[in-house]
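Hi support team,

I'm filing this because I wasn't sure whether my run with flavin-adenine dinucleotide finished correctly. The job status page said complete, but I'd like someone to confirm that the output block is well-formed before I use it downstream. Pasting the exact inputs I used:
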Amino acid sequence: MLNFAHQEHIHSYYYASKNLDIIRPHLDKPLSADVCVIGAGFGGLSAALELAEKGKQVIVLEGARIGFGASGRSGGQAINGFEDGIDQYIKRFGLDITRQLWEMSLEAINIIDERITKYDIRCDWKKGYATVALNSRRMDDLIAIERASRETFDYPNMQLWDKNQLKRHLGSDIYVGGLYDSNSGHLHPLNYCLGLAKACLDAGVRIFEQSPVVDIRRRGNQVTLVTDKARVTAQNAVIAANAYITKTAKSVHRGTARKILPVESFIIATEPLDQATADSLINNGMSVCDNNLLLDYYRLSADNRLLFGSDSSADKDMIRIMRKNMLNVFPQLEATKIEYGWVGPIDMTMNARPYFGRIAPNIFFAHGYSGHGVALTGLAGRIIAEAICGDDRRLRVFETLKIPSLYGGKWVKNLALKIGIPYYKFLDKYR
Ligand SMILES: Cc1cc2nc3c(=O)[nH]c(=O)nc-3n(C[C@H](O)[C@H](O)[C@H](O)COP(=O)(O)OP(=O)(O)OC[C@H]3O[C@@H](n4cnc5c(N)ncnc54)[C@H](O)[C@@H]3O)c2cc1C
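And here is everything the job wrote out:
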């Protein structure tokens, strides 16, 4: 699943409904630039766009296709905050660091607003998002998050909903309540990614597809990124390879892959629903995610399909399993056809905190968004661009979030996932 070199886009609802065709050549001769970015997902394109706007010459090297990775496959939910509730950050890092992180997470949503307007990106961006709880203990977690964001940060956009309030908008009986956030939202991720790529190209960024980076060499102030056919020499490199970093050579990931555990997530898309059925599921346009460890997330697409995702371990018959998960939430869809199903890697870190930093003074990276990458990638691109342009204050805040490593290579990670998924299922049921 994680192989990327020279791959084409996967077959998904997003690919079938993309509204831009961008095909870029592969790199076949040596070039130079101020900055060379690895990866044409949200993260790499965001860094490239910010840098081009600051007057830098930028080259993006993508091993497959623009939006081939998680960015072109995701649930599309742009959620503020981090995977761990903000109350957990206050306990662990204190108020000052948490305040800075919280404000940056709000900025991450604003970046999406700004870019969609500035570059006229057509990606069905819609505000409104609810985290829903399956039992009263999970509801207590939501109550703690709401209290921390309101009392500590005066955040006005969250509303706690009990079961009845939630049921006014969501046609499912299985939840005890939810936390609605009118500022978070959702979008068509592949169209957003292609829109970012177009904005990059218009700003003078050179993007090469089918150009996997196989080696990074650093000499003095220069970095050379070697692809399978040519090379780019630059003052700075940005690695935005995300979960795919675990499939790159050590000379590319330089130890960062040890912190990333790719967890498979699956999405199905139903046939288009008639308006009355769509409204009976979700009637206010919001996207929804539960707060289990292995979670379900869903929303309606612009053409009224239910897009339903779950984190799980791979199984040959994923569509059947996903359909069962969907019917657990919406039994009324028993007769509805499933038209698409696809999979992608969620870039988890061991403690679910984002992993941004540098491996050398001129080699930067942003990985491990842990389920919040739709929003946080925009921010990561911006703060890495700031650091490259001489102001690394905001990057240093992220560098204080220590991320544990998982040693032992691929088989240890596979084992961690094999043990971890049933363990998480157990915790979701009984904690
Ligand atoms: C099924 C699914 C559902 C998700 N749902 C959500 C959601 O609802 N909300 C949310 O916030 N997040 C979600 N995520 C996570 C989110 O999509 C990611 O965090 C985000 O897209 C990461 O963007 P990125 O640019 O860092 O990585 P990617 O989009 O994965 O891009 C990395 C790119 O780097 C390229 N690459 C890797 N190595 C090399 C190399 N050596 N040389 C050249 N190119 C290379 C890859 O081909 C790839 O295109 C989901 C992910 C999946 C898979």
